[in-house]
Amino acid sequence: MTINRDRSQQWDIAANRWVDDFTNFAPTPLVVDVPGIGVIEGATGEHVFQAAKFTDPAEREHVLSAPTPAGAKKRGKDRKKLTFRSDWDASASIDAMRAVVRAKVEQYPAIADQLRRIPIDRQFGGTAHAPIIEVTAWNDTIWGTTAGGRGANQLGQLWMEARAEAI
Question: What superfamily does domain 11-166 belong to in CATH?
Answer without folding.
Answer: YbiA-like (1.10.357.40)
